[in-house]
Fold each of these.
Amino acid sequence: MMRRTNKWSKMKHNLVVLSFFFSSLNLYAQEEQTRNFMPVPQEVTWENGRFDIDQNFTLSLHGNFDDRLYGASQRFLRRLQERTGVFFEQAYVNESHVNQQAKFIIEVERAGVVKLNEDESYSLQVNSDQILLKAKTDIGAIRGLETLLQTFDADRKGAFFMTANIQDSPRFPWRGLMLDVSRHFHPMDVVKRQLDAMAAVKMNVLHMHLADDQGFRIESKALPKLHELASEGEYFTQDEIREIIAYADDRGIRVMPEFDMPGHATAMILAYPEMASAPFQYMDKKPDLSPEEKKKAYAEMNVEHILERHAGVFDPTIDPTNEKNYELINLLIDEMTALFPDEYFHIGGDENEYKQWADNDQIQAFMKENDIPDHHMLQNYFNTKLLAMIQAQGKKMMGWDEILVEGLPKDAIIQSWRGKESLFEAAEKGYTGLLSNGYYIDLMHSVDDHYTVDPLEGGEQLSEEEQKSILGGEATMWSELVTKNTIDSRIWPRTAAIAERLWSSSSVTDLDDMHRRLDVTSRTLEEFGLKHITQPNVILRNIARSGDIAALKVLTGVAEPMEHYNRNPLGLMYTMQSPYTLFADACIADAPDARVFRKLVEAYLAGGTSKENEIKDWLHFWSANHEAFMKLREHSSTLAEVEPLSENLSKLAEITLESFDHSKAIDQEWYHEAEQFYYEARKQQARTILQVVKPMEKLFKNNTKVLYAKHTTSIPKIDCSFSDWNIEDWSLFTSEREYVGGAYRTDSAHYALQWDENNLYVALRMNNFKISADKKYGDALGNFIELIFETEDQSRYTYLLQANNKSIATKEVNETSTSWKNKIKSKVIVMGTLNVQEDWDEAYQVEIAIPWKDLNSKFSDAIKMNMVIHEKASADEDLKFDYLIGTSPNAHLILVE
Amino acid sequence: MMRRTNKWSKMKHNLVVLSFFFSSLNLYAQEEQTRNFMPVPQEVTWENGRFDIDQNFTLSLHGNFDDRLYGASQRFLRRLQERTGVFFEQAYVNESHVNQQAKFIIEVERAGVVKLNEDESYSLQVNSDQILLKAKTDIGAIRGLETLLQTFDADRKGAFFMTANIQDSPRFPWRGLMLDVSRHFHPMDVVKRQLDAMAAVKMNVLHMHLADDQGFRIESKALPKLHELASEGEYFTQDEIREIIAYADDRGIRVMPEFDMPGHATAMILAYPEMASAPFQYMDKKPDLSPEEKKKAYAEMNVEHILERHAGVFDPTIDPTNEKNYELINLLIDEMTALFPDEYFHIGGDENEYKQWADNDQIQAFMKENDIPDHHMLQNYFNTKLLAMIQAQGKKMMGWDEILVEGLPKDAIIQSWRGKESLFEAAEKGYTGLLSNGYYIDLMHSVDDHYTVDPLEGGEQLSEEEQKSILGGEATMWSELVTKNTIDSRIWPRTAAIAERLWSSSSVTDLDDMHRRLDVTSRTLEEFGLKHITQPNVILRNIARSGDIAALKVLTGVAEPMEHYNRNPLGLMYTMQSPYTLFADACIADAPDARVFRKLVEAYLAGGTSKENEIKDWLHFWSANHEAFMKLREHSSTLAEVEPLSENLSKLAEITLESFDHSKAIDQEWYHEAEQFYYEARKQQARTILQVVKPMEKLFKNNTKVLYAKHTTSIPKIDCSFSDWNIEDWSLFTSEREYVGGAYRTDSAHYALQWDENNLYVALRMNNFKISADKKYGDALGNFIELIFETEDQSRYTYLLQANNKSIATKEVNETSTSWKNKIKSKVIVMGTLNVQEDWDEAYQVEIAIPWKDLNSKFSDAIKMNMVIHEKASADEDLKFDYLIGTSPNAHLILVE
């Protein structure tokens, strides 16, 4: 039944374009209020006019402001020209252009300072003949320029801004992006274009994670071995850092450095081994490394200074008891606080597992001497020392949430990566903090996951003051699996949605509208040279060894890189030097076609049967794709790992198409194979997950939800013996395979239906369902099965079967539900060694005769039949239904002769 | 008749994919010998095995070499991993990896030096179990690494190198790319990726054009106003220059600086006005600027230091008579020769138009005093001074070919931009030189134009020694119309073909094979982050305001930017700050689909009628595209200028499709409109040219080459009166519109044919043909018409009509041709005032009866009929036929009842 339906493979070529077609749906559709904004401003009143953009566009700056406004205005003009193709007469902005009659007037009260809590508010009045942007600071004006560019539109007649009245200011003062330049180094051009993109979505903090186990990435004149020995030549010079800071300052963005200590310090310790808490030996304590792997790693090195290549948590930790270390760190802090003008200085502090401290007798002795009760407090001792150095330079210390222990001075600021709970806890204890948990963009979650994380949601118990101490959030771009080539598609466009969460009102939450605006924003970000849209194609051309990558684009349209840390199990599959030019690197976190398809299926299942043809077009499209894929495969060894994925997609699409044929539903062999195939296709291939499996499976389940009841003239005895049934095809209830408690549920129930003029007869055998009538523990006790019938008038009738400790009872009426009009004839037996404590039994077997009149129905095919299985979590809880493990198809009953 | 054939617009979607289909023809086809090489090595012997690439690939370096070989080997490993997706056990190359059993052994005799004439030869032996690369220098080894990467291949089984034995060395020692960073600045990342790409195709000189009218782009500590006042902040710091030089050195590439003097020096003079030959006033002598334009320009400036914004040749010129200037220039030369280690130093010297010198009395006096006869020699005086400074630093001076005047010392080196003649002249005079004429990649010519330029071709008269003095060539990337975003698609892939011309044997000339290999090379260059493939799509998405740019890709598939300097007439349409995000900027010099179509049409016209369906598929595809285009157009004002182009393409495709219907050929109204339309469609739209017009027109001409002769029973009188002809549709001979003497020819001739059993009757009226029997001048005298018949046996019969000074004579037999067997009945008259001197007459009118037997044919439809019009160039030349102004269709005669 897995045969290919070949008539479609011939039409592959005209189907390739469907992707264009589908993805361009609602191409220019715009919600009245949010249009193309990202982030959405606080208050927008649209007028119904347009400000036409032509070559006479002029811009004039008024008031007091920093020079950065000239640059920002200049860039604004340039971007506007580049969008419109209009050659402006005024291509420059300088003092000579001050003109009250200019088409675009910017008025600023004072020069802004790039620091936390600087005023970023602005108002924007777009009239049909003139635009007025007012702001307290030039930084606010820069935010307003981005908003104006987001009101840009065009039609046949020309380019224009929609007339509007906008008042805007940020919800949170700290809207950051953390860039990990240690694991993989990301050079100047990468950093600069991130700053451009950040400014475009009104972000205001670039947090540079400059030092970690895998590299120290900044020139230190005080401790030169840091960059000389622990960067392999890939580091920022101090001139470059100054250039980054100036570039960021021009865009109203702070730059905060982080030097992760005392853990995550392998690179520092590589340069200055005397700082370590244990003699430095590369990989000596690498977790989970086999002896062979270690041997190989050593053989490869054979030189003294080689950086850590793997991802993970490593042992090398700075010795907090060695006073000399504080001298070195003080030199570094003095140097770096001078280089970075920002008020905040981040010391990391995360994931110190204390291994080297525990193993070091001298450290243990020090703790005893100094009454330091545990390693947490020892790290606090270390942090406190650093805090003093940082404060001595007039700065504030920030750290990851591990630094929050008893005794941490209130001046320290907490960046929460572990969860909002720790953030709220910090706030309640009087600390200031910001949220990164939920904004880990390296984990390749859908943008929906990030967008729905609100730093304050769930913290309603906090006082207004405490709420204010939560400054905002930061998207964190950890770069273990990200190179300078792929980083753009990992940061963008998802980070724009996080930027909106941190700027816009908490009431801006519509996911569909966010996606619509994110698409526009994503394209617009290409203005800055970002490669998030282009680089995946570059990778695919390389893999395909061809310029014709249509068949691969079909796959990246539906496959997403494995989420969380799953792509790189234990941090051992990849090293920092592995090729990141694989199929998974061309996939993005929100596979675009998968989302379109999921929405289509949702609409279809909610009754939008008009979507059927569109759904089938997609399925035909995917079904035909594997043949095109295989043409590329013949000339590419890199595609070997992708071949199963491609084959799965086409096969699944075929099966799903087949399931639209209702006659398939009673072909049990077909059904079982198909079911198994959906299950298998959920697994990773080429370190990616096919995101259309679930919606396809939903379609499949929906399509096979037909119940056939056969007419019988010989009334079955209700005795739990099915010998008097003449059953050719059993039907099947299956679990939806929700992942529960560490495993997918595999419960299922075979059943058959018969009918005569008086009754509907049900034969039911609950398979593979571990039940024991006399066990003392486990999930078997107190289990229920419900059979639910829903008739044309939408009355529900529930038939409940319960297994208790000693016996199987039948209950014809579920007290909590509509009652049956008559006693229903039924019998239930347990197949197996009932009441033998040591074993699991095999199954229930059930036989029921339900009078039509009790169903308020007669010979009806308008009955839906469901089955629900309830389980208890433990034997101790007697009546609590902990979870629903399976819902049978909400199927349509068909009475056949 | 311009009606849209709507049945096709419905099929647009499945046609969109044709572009994929067509462009992927011969996707993996490879010529046995040249495979994917670019440049092709001197000697290649293929073995029939394969060296399989797996994780156990190892590389070991032997002999004496510079550290650059570690870097190059490391990059080789990285690129190989990134192509194959294989994770090598050996990811690094250092001393620890020396191993005679390594899979890949590199043996080098000595460290190379990055200088002219360094040894770049290598030999490469790829066996199935081991690879051996031998070279005298590490630079040769680096060239060999690129060759090895070009033997990379893959199939289902895996990735491999083809086994081979290769001996290679360059034909020319100087293979350069000149990068103009003055007009538009191109920052570090742009320069670095050009260096990577250059190395990939074995180029060895980066020529940095650092100073021109529009900007001085390098930090000068000696004359800091140069970069401070004349760069708008866009310049290379000296640290950056050192970084570029080191990066280039690592890749075996020299970096030569150019400071253009004494002309093209507006930027220098802006910074140091005291250097000028006339008081500096911006734009004061801007050629061709209207008073309004000047006024606007001044109004915009209003500040002292603003860079020249336009392209062209400007007046500001350094005063060669001012000794102080030499002090300043000497400071600059001392500083820059110290910074750039290369032996060569380029002083520009081009396009000095001497205006300011001629207008400056003091300069004129100086010339008189010093016996300097003309401005050429004055510039030579200037050059000689610079030469001494350069030589004092131990360097050699290079200049554009204007510097070559009497008295130029032989040490100076000539870079020829004006033509090979000046290069050969220089060689004959004993100078060394290199060629850039023919390699002006900024002019957007087809790669074919560059590839077919051989520096030595045509210089056969040169002695071997003189030939050796021609060092090679340089592709020149002038950047008036090129930004950092678009430059990659202007340089690549065409420059790879120039690199091959300069490296490979002169016998490597096959254009089709070059194109095949160029496609592969182009994709491979994406490894270095080059945007030549991706950036056009970025531009199109911006223009379309959509991610769905399929309709625009159809257009960029067939449209090319205007060639030569035509895109920017007089240098005034664009400024350096204009938006270069227009449709033309997304088009490339070799529109890919246009080339495919041209080849198809050529094959078809050469008798490959099997191509008809493929041709029609393209035409249907284009015909349907305009509708898709217009959907984008509704939301884009930038597309306004593209709309006529899109409409033209669709209309032309329709007309060309229609022309396949032979009955159309006798519809004169249709024919005229169509002809006019092809003519109009040749014109630029959106500063691009539709490159499929000509092949479509060829098809049209071919398809309409059907002659219909009607059967008649009433024999016409041969009296030049057509009243006894019953003609409904006249046919038409038309000129092929070759561009002759400043205008397209519009000559045409109406004609009709009739036949009976005895004769073929011809009625011919030569229209619109300016003839005067008694003019003393002009092109009318001595004109000829030839009617040529070619029969089945391929005999040719020519009927000649001649107009002489006084009368029209007929000649039945063209003496130089096959003779007619009988006297043919005919009559010719001139319509108009014959013999009135003052006017032009209207036309010839001709009537002929040609007996079938004289055509050696009877009732034959195998006759082809041509008409040729000859014209004399002038009245004075009596018998010389200067040019063929038109050839009628070589049409097939159809006898109809």
Note: The radius of gyration of chain A is 32 Å.
Amino acid sequence: MTEQQRKAPYDLPDVSGLSIGILGGTGDQGKGLARRFALAGHRVTIGSRKAERAQAAADDLTGGQDGGLPVSGAENPAAAGGSDVVIVAVPWEGHKATLESLRAELAGKIVVDCVNPLGFEKGKGAFALPVEEGSAAEQAAAVLPGSRVIAAFHHVSAKLLLDPDVDGMELDVLVLGDDREATDLVQALAGRIPGMRGVYGGRLHNAHQIEALTANLISINRRYKAHAGLRVTDV
Amino acid sequence: MTEQQRKAPYDLPDVSGLSIGILGGTGDQGKGLARRFALAGHRVTIGSRKAERAQAAADDLTGGQDGGLPVSGAENPAAAGGSDVVIVAVPWEGHKATLESLRAELAGKIVVDCVNPLGFEKGKGAFALPVEEGSAAEQAAAVLPGSRVIAAFHHVSAKLLLDPDVDGMELDVLVLGDDREATDLVQALAGRIPGMRGVYGGRLHNAHQIEALTANLISINRRYKAHAGLRVTDV
């Protein structure tokens, strides 16, 4: 057991200097996370297939009251290769192909997958799609054997992340992975956003239900007209 | 849309007079729920394959400081047929066969399934088992077409339920089902246990991940030496 593993579970590293790349940062979820991490002082690079789209999303965020935020845009390979930690927020449809194309740039890095493979049907609502590897996060781990893949940030509301009137988010981020140093680091990153807390949530083979749970949160939001989040009690 | 469906989601029925049968009430989870519902004033019948085992579990609960609790024991068919609401807390291995054998007694009733189909492996910990019907709750619904099957109480700690020093439970019970009157009723039942709140959690086709999430809670408990529960924020 390494020194890191002997540490108490609440003793998390200082991650304040880390830069963050966000693949799929032009979507609401990625853009929202980009905004919150930049507000917390992290240098953020929004990645997209096209540099202009990435730059436009970055310009959106640095306009208005958020002027001066440390956000820039780049093509996905540059966003991945030039950042300490890379968040995957691409649509599920493009998940596997995007990651396969970035294997070299993502090697050795902590890759945080927050993709929820969900389908929607009228009258049925949201439901989990079957994933051959078990979950989006396990697919990422299979495609990126040289990266340290972590699953996190599945349940954060893109709407709240982007809302300029919302100062803090009232939820715990479940962080899953097989590498404790990496889960600790991502838990610490979650804690950089006011109101959020990173809580260890299990190993990657239990990621499916965390992704799928987003379908339940969508139902809850609909029933209660809410932006539901989860808190873990007794932790 | 019926009158019931137009109600606000927080407007739950009075369930104080309902009697509760618990199949598998001799296990820790069922016994713990029996204890808490009896403490809340419900007449509870613990069911088991053998009447003597059911009676022994009931005697356990009514001994000591809980003397006088309205708990009795009976064979499963009597526990099912003689109660207003029936909770299924049997081991996953016997789930399908037990329910098939009680189809007549459970017809027309609200059946609350709280079974978590989990496996355990050394070095891997807990993980969700595949279920042909999608989840234990959907299996119950398939086996019991004449009952109103609801999924709930998956994440309550049997240890805390049985602990005489624990007055309240700090968690929300996610209640899933396709029949709003029945989910409302089970939400109200959850609210009878101090500290618990019943929150609508989606339709039955999204029950799998709620059952499977118990594996993550086991990992969380292990990491933090806790009895973790979930709270839903903004609801």
Note: Chain A has one domain: 20-224.
